[in-house]
């Protein structure tokens, strides 16, 4: 692992003890020792185990559910079906179409018809088999392009169409743009279903406490969302549902809607039986029922002058949403908003529509639509470079956004943009000039090499996707130690360490004085979901707000004590002092005592809401995100042209993330994100044939291993954002969303042929097409 | 969830044989295939005879000029064994990347053979070595050639009451060898195809050639037609390419055109040719 960092002399972090430093993660030692308790580690006396019954058909009417035999089965304490739901049957962030228990229809093989709770797992397994469900099979549709056609089977008859909410971006006039172009490239691209592949499968336990509150502990990525869904399902107040996330073994956007459904089922079973109820999914069921990364079917048309100036980008995208809407329309939106690249493109016309099919449902997964469209636009950039005989890095530099430019959505870029620097540094680091030239010459032998680059911009946080605010609390204890909480959950990305660093530096104390508590929905205000790479920016700003309020109060007291003006009083290294006469000082602990004696409250809630954005969904114009992260990735590969095997030899990941609060964790994000992106490029696909999922475990779903990825190199570029905590923006998703096109561009140089459909498997690289052992049924 | 089952764990071979003859058992050694498969079943109608506690079946030794590998030797045991390392490095190379480290520590050579997966990494080298399997039951013993023992994918001609005791073969006489495994990734990969080759080159002429592919033919066995093409000739890239082409042709003749043929046809040719070049030191 090598690192390169460019730190301009920066007032913002001068004299700070922890921010900008590779502070050790708060949870590192415990995790290495295997101490954390994951959801499945929790137990309670009198516990029952839940087991769910899945649909038998990809699309069918439920005529009858007979649970009598299951109810009488040994050990069974409770059985729930659609008839037992006390409140709302449906939930969903965009369209309320999802059900914890199937209603009149099942729409895919992962729909749950019934759940039983029994004293042992084995009894639950046996009982669920005794539920008798009578179905009437319905015609199904598995291709979103087919699903859009007139007369296709409808998933939701009342909607009259399988299309969800069409999204668009309009900027300038593409017709004019194409007229001004000397070269027009038209290409189609596809990406498959992908599994999040968190190491910990879904797990939760529900019980009722002495106050009658339903408590649910589990592997929740978004506890506040789950609480709302569960409260609606049970028709209970939000105050009576308390969701606590346990230590998460990864999520990547995956432990969201399914965890809400699991929470509903366990809570209802717990209410019905009066017993604690728990479930932990097998890997096979986790694959079956959880959502996937959306397959994208992309038609792109890009116009460029002979000098390589982008003139127009037109795209038409169909997104497979599967049976539920989930976040698909917003995934489609992000896909097209970022789908013209981080370039000055004056004319853009992009349409994307997510479509219901009887496939597994799809939704949020690290990147959220942009990993797919980045493959298209960044592949086309290389096609243009080749046709115009311009170096791919130079072509990107020519078009790269700079401060003052207008982005492809029509948004004026008023912030500092580190894209050019990131491009130059990445090229230098991977040895671009020499290698690109060398590999362009005719290569002989089976093993061919190539080097590829790709870049992107990423709108930070939710932007046009929703209301965006977060809370934090900072409480200084009487001994000078501090408890920090935010409504942001740590999935393993290390957010708790970042929050602690921010609080420590604002309060001028060392980080080991801080204890970070993970959120509990009853103890911290709703801070929205922990998604969209928003932890550092939103949670960090809320923490900053809370800590500043406490600090201000302490400074007032200290100023009185030191007889110094308040504006002269600073705190760092565990002491308050007068910056004009530094001998005038008082330790942080003393100051706490004084405040306590004066009954000054040393706790505060912090709150941060995102600056206003301006997106017109109808017209497809405006400012969809408040600001952007700029990322550049480069890959060097060796392709065995006799077997189609691709080896990534070198990989450089560079990001203008505003400010690296914790550089070590930033490298962690970059390298993990790169591994995930290499999976998208070369290895991963959940094969779904006629609605049947063929890959349901990691034997056939091929993730890259440590042996399949190179020694990653990371570059931190810092253009601090005035709004971010210490200038920080975000990194989680940028780290993975532009990996695949860099790899594919390198492969294209190596073999002189381009892969348009992912993943670039052995067969695709060798033959240019996929081979499948699964045959599709003949129509009719 | 793993279905409920009855388990017997005998500690001697005799105990195992009489128990096996008396009951309705399936045998597990390391369990790395069968336990995984059993998770797919709701219930099973057999008992499990876990023979992993029989120390006698775990040894690797050389007797009367022959190498005898106890059926319960794990991949890791084989990999670390001095006799194997010294006298049959081909086998060592083949087990090096079988499954994962955990699987190599539990999975046994005997289990790998009896499971008879076409992708089994230990089988092609053992077939290349003309290995024989020694089977024992309460009724007696028999020895069968490995390529006759495995009859087709996931099937052997093991008889009721028989336990695979050991695998025997003579140390090979060869000047070069290679095991080529092609997986979808570098570790934890199931062989897409593999091939074990051995060459004995004397005075610049190939005296003996052995080509034993896995996941290529509908049976396990050497590809004698391709071997014959090599024998008596001088090693050269062109010759090895011809041998690869031969194996590829025979694959299609034996397996017919399947979904994967379009890929396997050119690739097995190249794998065989590469493996032979490695073995001959004419590395390409």
How large is the count of helical segments of chain B? Answer: 12
Largest interface: A-B, 29 and 22 residues
Number of helices of chain A: 20
Give the end-to-end Cα distance of chain A, rounded to a whole number of Å: 56 Å
Strand order of the largest sheet of chain B: 4-5-10-6-7
Query: So, CATH architecture of the largest domain in chain B?
Result: 2-Layer Sandwich
Coarse morphology of chain B: globular
CATH top level class name of the largest domain in chain B: Alpha Beta
Which architecture of the largest domain in chain A per CATH?
2-Layer Sandwich
Low-confidence stretches of chain A: 1-10
- Rounded mean pLDDT of chain B is 96
Structural domain count of chain B: 2
Indicate the radius of gyration of chain A in whole angstroms: 27 Å
As laid out across the biggest beta sheet of chain A, the strand order is 4-6-2-13-10-11-12
The share of residues in extended strands of chain A comes to 25-35%
Sequence of secondary-structure elements of chain B: EHEHEEEHHHHHHEEHEEEEEEHHH
Strand content range of chain B = 15-25%
Q: Considering DSSP H and I runs of 4 or more, what fraction of the residues of chain A is helical?
A: 25-40%
Let me know the average pLDDT of chain A. Answer: 96
Q: Summarize the biggest pleated sheet of chain A.
A: 7 strands, mixed
Characterization of the model:
The complex is a heterodimer of chains A (780) and B (284). Chain A is an alpha+beta fold. Helix content of chain A is 28%, strand content 25%. Chain A is built from 20 helices and 33 strands. Chain A has a 7-stranded mixed beta sheet. In chain A, strands 1-33-30-29-19 form a 5-stranded mixed beta sheet, sandwiched between helices. In chain A, a hairpin with a 4-residue loop joins β27 and β28. In chain A, α6 crosses α7 (257-273), α9 packs parallel to α10 (370-388) and α17 crosses α19. The longest helix of chain A has 28 residues, at 535-562. The radius of gyration of chain A is 27 Å and the shape is globular. The N and C termini of chain A lie far apart (56 Å). Residues 1-10 of chain A have low confidence and may be disordered. The radius of gyration of chain B is 19 Å and the shape is globular. The mean pLDDT of chain B is 96. Chain B has helices at residues 13-22, 34-38, 75-80, 82-87, 89-96, 101-106, 109-115, 123-128, 146-149, 224-230, 237-255, 261-280, and strands at residues 7-8, 25-28, 47-50, 60-63, 66-70, 132-137, 140-145, 150-152, 155-156, 163-169, 176-182, 193-202, 205-214. Chain B folds into 2 domains: 1-171, Uridine Diphospho-n-acetylenolpyruvylglucosamine Reductase, domain 3, CATH 3.30.465.10; 176-280, CO dehydrogenase flavoprotein, C-terminal domain (Enolase-like, domain 1, 2-Layer Sandwich). With 284 residues, chain B is α+β, with helices and mostly antiparallel strands. In chain B, a hairpin with a 2-residue loop joins β12 and β13. The A-B interface holds A 121-122, 125, 129, 282, 445-446, 642-645, 647, 683, 699, 702, 704-708, 761-763, 766-767, 771-773, 775 and B 1, 4, 39, 42, 182, 184-188, 190, 192, 259-260, 262-263, 266-267, 270-271, 274, 284.
């Amino acid at each position: 692992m090598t690192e390169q960092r460019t730190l301009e002399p920066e007032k913002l972090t001068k004299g700070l003890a922890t921010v900008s430093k590779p502070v050790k993660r708060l949870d590192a030692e415990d995790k290495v020792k295997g101490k954390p308790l994951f959801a499945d580690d929790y137990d309670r006396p009198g516990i029952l185990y839940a087991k769910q019954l899945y649909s038998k058909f990809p699309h069918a009417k439920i005529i009858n559910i007979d649970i009598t035999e299951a109810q009488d089965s040994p050990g069974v304490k409770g059985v729930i079906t659609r008839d037992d739901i006390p409140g709302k049957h449906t939930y969903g962030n965009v369209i309320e179409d999802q059900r914890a228990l199937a209603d009149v229809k099942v729409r895919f093989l992962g729909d749950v018809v019934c759940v039983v709770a029994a004293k042992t797992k084995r009894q639950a397994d046996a009982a669920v088999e005794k539920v008798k469900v009578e179905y009437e099979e319905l015609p199904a549709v598995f291709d979103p392009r087919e699903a859009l056609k007139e007369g296709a089977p409808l998933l939701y008859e009342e909607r009259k169409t399988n299309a969800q909410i069409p999204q668009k971006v309009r900027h300038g006039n593409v017709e004019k743009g194409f007229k001004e172009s000397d070269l027009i490239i038209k290409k189609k691209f596809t990406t498959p279903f992908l599994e999040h592949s968190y190491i910990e499968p879904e797990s939760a336990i529900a019980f009722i406490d002495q106050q009658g509150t339903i408590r649910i502990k589990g592997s929740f990525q978004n506890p506040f969302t789950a609480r709302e869904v569960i409260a609606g399902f049970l028709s209970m107040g939000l105050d009576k549902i308390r969701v606590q996330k346990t230590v998460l073994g990864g999520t990547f956007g995956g432990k969201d809607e399914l965890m809400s459904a699991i929470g509903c089922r366990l809570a209802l079973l717990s209410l019905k039986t009066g017993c604690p109820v728990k479930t932990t999914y097998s890997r096979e069921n986790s694959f079956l029922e959880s959502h996937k990364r959306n397959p994208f079917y992309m038609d792109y048309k890009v116009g460029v002058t002979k000098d390589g100036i982008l003139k127009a980008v037109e795209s038409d995208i169909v997104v497979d949403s599967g049976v539920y809407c989930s976040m698909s329309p917003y995934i489609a939106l992000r896909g097209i908003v970022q789908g013209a690249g981080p370039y000055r493109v004056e004319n853009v016309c992009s349409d994307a529509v997510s479509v219901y099919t009887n496939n597994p449902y799809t939704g949020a997964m690290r990147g959220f639509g942009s990993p797919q469209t980045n493959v298209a636009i960044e592949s086309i950039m290389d096609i243009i470079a080749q046709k115009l005989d311009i170096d791919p890095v130079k072509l990107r530099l020519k078009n790269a956004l700079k401060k003052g430019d207008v982005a492809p959505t029509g948004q004026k870029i008023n912030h500092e943009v580190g894209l050019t620097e990131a491009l130059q540094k990445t090229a230098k680091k991977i040895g671009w000039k020499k290698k690109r030239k060398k590999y362009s010459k005719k290569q002989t032998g089976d093993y061919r090499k190539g080097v590829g680059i790709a870049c992107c911009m990423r709108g930070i946080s939710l932007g046009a996707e929703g209301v965006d605010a977060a809370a934090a609390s900072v409480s200084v204890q009487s001994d000078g130690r501090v408890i920090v909480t935010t409504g942001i959950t740590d999935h393993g990305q290390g957010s708790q360490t970042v929050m602690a660093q921010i609080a420590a530096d604002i309060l001028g104390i060392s980080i080991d004085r801080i204890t970070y508590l993970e959120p509990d929905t009853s103890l911290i205000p709703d801070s929205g979901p922990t998604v969209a790479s928003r932890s550092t920016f939103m949670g960090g700003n809320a923490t900053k707000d809370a800590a500043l309020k406490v600090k201000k109060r302490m400074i007032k007291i200290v100023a009185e004590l030191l007889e110094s003006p308040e504006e002269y009083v600073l705190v760092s290294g565990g002491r308050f002092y007068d910056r004009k006469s530094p001998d005038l000082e008082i330790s942080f602990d003393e100051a706490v005592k004084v405040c306590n004696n004066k009954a000054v409250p040393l706790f505060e809630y912090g709150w941060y809401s995102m600056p206003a954005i301006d997106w017109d969904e109808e017209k497809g114009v405006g400012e969809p995100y408040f600001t952007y992260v700029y990322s550049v990735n480069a890959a060097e590969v060796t392709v065995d042209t006799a077997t189609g095997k691709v080896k990534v030899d070198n990989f450089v990941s560079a990001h203008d993330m505003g400010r690296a609060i914790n550089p070590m964790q930033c490298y962690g994000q970059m390298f993990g994100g790169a591994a995930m992106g290499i999976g998208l490029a070369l290895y991963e696909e959940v094969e779904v044939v006629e609605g049947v999922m063929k890959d349901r475990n990691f034997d056939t779903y091929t993730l890259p291993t440590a042996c399949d990825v190179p020694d990653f190199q990371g570059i931190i570029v810092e253009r601090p954002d005035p709004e971010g905590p210490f200038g920080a923006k975000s990194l989680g998703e940028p780290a993975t969303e532009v990996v695949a096109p860099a790899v594919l561009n390198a492969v294209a140089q190596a073999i002189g042929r381009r892969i348009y459909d992912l993943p670039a498997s052995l067969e695709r690289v060798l033959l240019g097409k996929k081979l499948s052992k699964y045959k599709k049924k003949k129509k009719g | 969830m793993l279905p409920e089952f009855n388990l017997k764990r005998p500690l001697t071979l005799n105990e195992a044989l009489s128990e096996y003859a008396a009951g309705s058992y399936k045998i597990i050694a390391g369990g790395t295939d069968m336990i995984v498969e059993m998770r797919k079943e709701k219930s099973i109608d057999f008992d499990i005879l876990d023979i992993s506690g029989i120390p006698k079946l775990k040894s690797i030794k050389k007797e009367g000029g022959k190498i005898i590998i106890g059926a319960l030797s794990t991949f890791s045991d084989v990999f670390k064994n001095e006799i194997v390392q010294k006298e049959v490095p081909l086998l060592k190379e083949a087990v090096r990347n079988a499954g994962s480290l955990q699987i190599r520590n539990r999975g046994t050579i005997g289990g790998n053979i009896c499971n008879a997966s076409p992708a089994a990494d230990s089988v092609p080298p053992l077939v290349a070595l003309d290995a024989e399997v020694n089977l024992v039951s309460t009724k007696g013993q028999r020895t069968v050639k490995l390529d006759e023992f495995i009859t087709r994918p996931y099937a052997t001609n093991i008889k009721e009451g028989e336990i695979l005791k050991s695998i025997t073969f003579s140390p090979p006489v060869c000047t070069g060898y290679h095991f080529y495994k092609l997986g979808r990734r570098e570790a934890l990969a199931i062989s897409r195809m593999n091939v074990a080759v051995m060459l004995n080159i004397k005075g610049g002429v190939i005296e003996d050639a052995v080509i034993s592919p896995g996941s290529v033919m509908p049976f396990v066995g050497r590809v004698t037609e391709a071997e014959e093409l090599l024998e008596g000739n001088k090693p050269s890239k062109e010759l090895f390419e011809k041998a690869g082409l031969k194996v590829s042709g025979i694959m299609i003749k034996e397996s017919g055109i399947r979904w994967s043929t379009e890929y396997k046809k050119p690739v097995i040719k190249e794998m065989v040719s590469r493996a032979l070049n490695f073995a001959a030191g004419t590395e390409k």
